[in-house]
Task: structure prediction
Amino acid sequence: MGLFSRLGDIINSNINAMLDGAENPEKIARLIIQEMEDTLVEVRTAAARAMADKKEMEREIAHYTKQRDEWAAKAELAIDKGREDLARGALTAKQKADSEIERRQEAMKVAEEAFEKRQQDLAKLQDKLSEAKAKHRALMMRREAAEQRIRVRSQVHDGKVDDALARYAHVERKVDEMEAYADQIKGREPNLQAEFEALERNESVEKELEALKARRTGPSQSSETEG
Result:
């Protein structure tokens, strides 16, 4: 089974289980991201293992190549010395080294293909993970915006707000009354100019009173004198 097929099965099974449990979408998104991150770690581990296998094959190929060259040189030396039996044994060992090299080359080819496949899987999975995280952030922003709208609208339609506004209006009326009372007190405060004006009014009244008394008493006094 392919990597992404297995990942898809895991995600789908978990999503279905969470949907059955009536979980919220944000938790589902977090679960998907967690599954993808875990799989990403597995793929990276597999890619590192494939690279290690390739390097091991390279070391073994170098080892058997050195052995092959050494046995080839020994076979030539044995021929030069007239020892065909030794030359035959050296060539047999050389062929065994060649066989080992071929096997390691085939194994290294498989390791290289596995490494390339893991690299492709990593790139695809990383892209999908980035996409999932972006969608998760967008989902969280939408949820937060919806929660704020709910709070605002709940407060707007809540009777407590109306009560608070009514209390505020009552306080405002009290303040108006206090300000009006303060203005009245200020209007009744005596000042020097007002006192002088009152004094002048009183003097004018007194003069007019004396004049009136004089007019009223004048004729009576004249009659008494004539009699």
